[in-house]
Specification:
Elements (H helix, E strand, L loop, with lengths): L8 H7 L33 H15 L17 E3 H16 L6 H10 L14 E5 L6 E4 L1 H16 L3 H20 L20 E2 H18 L2 H17 L1 E2 L4 E2 L2 E3 L5 E3 L4 H17 L3 H18 L1 E2 L4 E2 L12 H18 L2 H18 L24 H15 L4
Antiparallel strand pairs: 1-2, 2-3, 4-7, 5-6, 7-8, 9-10
InterPro entries: 6-hairpin_glycosidase_sf, Glyco_hydro_76, MUG_Protein
Pfam family, one: Glyco_hydro_76
GO biological process, one term: carbohydrate metabolic process
Length: 409
C-alpha cells in the first residue's frame, strides 16, 4: 500500500503495485493540516452517498472490469496490468455496497475472490500473495508484501460476514491463510526490536504493514478463538506502541529503516493512523477491553482531526510533510473509514461529520463530474490533477461512499 506523490507518473504505476508508500515529492496547492481543533461544520448540501457509490461502481464496471473478473490497474499506462491490492480493494468496495443494500455487487465480489487464486504462491508451502498478475490471472510475480496480505485477510473477513455456506467458509479459510503466511514468512525479526518488514525485499518496517497485520490477527482471534492469533496481535501491538507511536502528536509515525538502531521517519500519514485506530478497536474486542481500547482509538481520532485535517477544505491531508500538499482518494479516503469505525463503537455524531466532509472534499478535489472517475492526485481546490485514473482509488471511493450510505440522513 504505497503512499506516493509522484513526480514521474511512469514511476508511480510501477510502485503502486503494492499498497505501501514511497515518497517522491511533487508540490501542489491545497495546504496541510492544522494545530488547533478544526471546525466540523456539516456539509451544506445533502448528498446521496449510495448513489455516489453506484456511480463510482458504474465507472469501474465500464472501464476497469475484465471478462475474467479482474480489474485493470488504471486506464492509461497500466491498463494491461493487474495488481493484488487493487483487486482486493474492489472486493472490499463491493462488500460495503452489499452491506449498504445493493446485492448486485455480490457476484462480482465472489468472482473476483476466485480470480485472486492466481496471485497465490503455489510453489511455496507457506503461500502468500504476489503483487501482480496478468489480466487473465497468469504470470504471478513481484515481491510479497505484508500490508497487501494483511489487508487482503481483512477484506476476506468482511466478505465472510456477509456471505453464507461454502462462500463464507472459503473466505475465512483464505483469511487464515493470509495470517498464517504473515506468521511463517520470516518477515518478523529482531531488527529494530521486532516488527514486520514491509516486503520480502526488507527495505523498512512501516506502521501500516504492522497495523493491518494487527487488525487481521485480532479479528481472527475474535472469530476463531485460536490463541496463536491473539499472541501475534499482542506482539504486534506492543512493538507498534513502543517503537512507532509519537506521544507528542498522539499519532503513529511512517516507518523505521536504516542500519544499526534504525532511522525513524516522523511524517504522519492519514491512512497509517486510520489503520491504527481500527486496529485498537479490534484488539479491544479480542482482549475483552473494548472500553479501554475505544478510548485509545478516540485519542487517535482526535489527533487525526487536529494534525491531519485541513480546516479550510474540510478533508484529510496526505501527510504532514508541508511540501506534499495534494490529496489521494484511497489514502486520504481511508480517514473516512476510520471515523465511521469510531462512530460504530461510540455513536458520537462528530465522527460522521468528519467522515462525510472528507468524502465531499475528495469529490471536489479529485472527481470528474462527467465520468464519475477519481484522479490519482489533486490539490484540495481541484487543480493540479494527475492524469491517472487508478483502480484502487475508484475502489476506495466506492467503499467509503457505500459505508457512509448506511448513515446517510
Amino acid at each position: 500500500m504505497k503512499k506516493i506523490i509522484f513526480g514521474l507518473m511512469a514511476v508511480a504505476t510501477v510502485l503502486a503495485a503494492s499498497c505501501g508508500k514511497e515518497k517522491t515529492v511533487t508540490p501542489g496547492d491545497g495546504g496541510g493540516g492544522g494545530t488547533t481543533n478544526p471546525p466540523v461544520d456539516p456539509p451544506v448540501t445533502t448528498v446521496n452517498y449510495l448513489n455516489l457509490a453506484k456511480e463510482t461502481r458504474s465507472f469501474i464496471s465500464s472501464n476497469l472490469l475484465t471478462s475474467n473478473f479482474s480489474y485493470r490497474a488504471n486506464t492509461t499506462s497500466q491498463s494491461n496490468s493487474c495488481f493484488e491490492w487493487y483487486n482486493v480493494s474492489q472486493i472490499y468496495a463491493d462488500a460495503a455496497l452489499v452491506a449498504a443494500g445493493d446485492a448486485s455487487a455480490l457476484p462480482y465480489m465472489n468472482n473476483t475472490f476466485k480470480f485472486m487464486e492466481g496471485f497465490w504462491d503455489k510453489s511455496d508451502l507457506r503461500g502468500g500473495y504476489f503483487a501482480s498478475v496478468r489480466l487473465d490471472g497468469t504470470g504471478a510475480g513481484g515481491d510479497k508484501y505484508v500490508d497487501d496480505n494483511g489487508l487482503t485477510g481483512m477484506v476476506y473477513l468482511e466478505a465472510y460476514e456477509i456471505t453464507t455456506g461454502a462462500d463464507k467458509a472459503a473466505y475465512l479459510a483464505k483469511a487464515k491463510a493470509c495470517a498464517d503466511w504473515l506468521i511463517n514468512s520470516g518477515l518478523w525479526d529482531g531488527t529494530y526490536g521486532g516488527g514486520f518488514w514491509w516486503s520480502t525485499a526488507k527495505p523498512d518496517k512501516p506502521t501500516q504493514s504492522n497495523g493491518v497485520a494487527m487488525q487481521l490477527f485480532a479479528k481472527l482471534y475474535t472469530i476463531t478463538g485460536e490463541t496463536v492469533y491473539l499472541d501475534w496481535a499482542t506482539k504486534t501491538n506492543n512493538w507498534l506502541r513502543n517503537t512507532m507511536y509519537d506521544s507528542a502528536s498522539g499519532l503513529y509515525i511512517w516507518k523505521i529503516d536504516g542500519g544499526g538502531a534504525g532511522t525513524k521517519h516522523f511524517e504522519k500519514f492519514t491512512y497509517d493512523n486510520a489503520v491504527m485506530l481500527e486496529a485498537y478497536l479490534l484488539y479491544g474486542k479480542a482482549v475483552n477491553d473494548a472500553a479501554g481500547y475505544l478510548a485509545k482509538a478516540q485519542d487517535i481520532g482526535n489527533a487525526m482531526n487536529t494534525v491531519l485535517w485541513n480546516a479550510q477544505y474540510k478533508g484529510y491531508i496526505f501527510n504532514t510533510d508541508p511540501t506534499q500538499t495534494r490529496v489521494n482518494p484511497a489514502w486520504c479516503g481511508w480517514g473516512t473509514q476510520g471515523m465511521i469505525r469510531l462512530y460504530e463503537q461510540d455513536k458520537d455524531e462528530k465522527w460522521l461529520t468528519f467522515a462525510r466532509n472528507n468524502i465531499n472534499a475528495l469529490n471536489t478535489a479529485t472527481r470528474n463530474a462527467d465520468s464519475h472517475a477519481y484522479y490519482f492526485f489533486a490539490a484540495f481546490n481541484g487543480s493540479n490533477r494527475s492524469p491517472e485514473i487508478e483502480g484502487v482509488d475508484q475502489a476506495w471511493m466506492q467503499r467509503v461512499q457505500a459505508m457512509m450510505a448506511k448513515y446517510d440522513k
